[in-house]
Amino acid sequence: MKNILIIGSTGQLGSELTMLLRARYGSRNVVAGYIKGAEPTGELLESGPAEHVDITDAMQIAEAVKKYRIDTVYNMAALLSATAESKPQLAWHIGLGGLFNLLEVAREQHCAVFTPSSIGAFGDYTPKDRTPQDTVQRPQTMYGVTKVAGELLGDYYFKRFGVDTRSVRYPGLISHVAPPGGGTTDYAVEIYHSAAEGRVFKCPLLAGTFMDMMYMPDALSAAINLMEANPDSLVHRNSFNVTAMSVDPEALRKSILEYIPDFKMEYCVDPVRQAIADSWPNSLDDSCAKEEWGWLPEYGLQLTTQSMLRELESKMNQ
Questions:
Q1: What is the band of 78 on the pLDDT scale with cuts at 50, 70, 90?
Q2: Contact (Cβ atoms closer than 8 angstroms) between residue 150 and residue 96
Q3: Catalytic residue among 34, 143, 157, 192, which?
Q4: What topology does CATH give the domain 172-213+245-284+292-316?
């Protein structure tokens, strides 16, 4: 990677990924792509180039790629799971129409492409525990449908046109930088904010609802390390299971109680989010990622809780 474009650079994952890539490859070599209404601000804007790039506009993508001589694109543009269920047409337009635009540009301009998939790509017929890398994928949500179709589209462009497409299936992502963005697993971000602010947390999922989670530093490492991996080592491409921990609301509550003994949580179940969570795996088997490109997470539940509470407290005291 020499010249990199991040589409969706101001989102939950994109904002942190952009800054990390700038530190790694040089600020001038990483372009922050954004859409109207989600313009970069502060350090994200000041530390490097920014360009209006809407994933649904193929011409904009092509112009940015040519202007900055881009060789690698990270496509972080998407509606998250719960939001996508309320806006399924828009979710398809961004998730699949946008990806098709990008892959066509990548085919013509010879770019590598990273597009994140998700545990949402699985469904009720998928084995729930230690979900295999290669298994049944029959999601019942528009979010999941776009992720499965995106994985297949990425593989097609690699096999048919030689486009260097790569992807990981992200679990729930926990971050202290960006606010929750409408995902089913975002309760795991909300719970830390409630604890740090001394509020009672109203949990939208039932106790015993296990899902895989990952702290943001590991998520960023997964994206970068996969794109830096030797292509000859990759048996799979779109998309690798990756995970760091499998937790339910009670596990998160108990980990917070070790640091904030008076933390309170109540259950106020959201039927839509609960139904989505019930269709997803309890845990993933990420052995293929470990074997093919050396995937290894650093943060388990205890380290994640320590870091999240410390960082949120620091922000509150500023």
A1: confident
A2: yes
A3: 143
A4: UDP-galactose 4-epimerase; domain 1 (3.90.25)
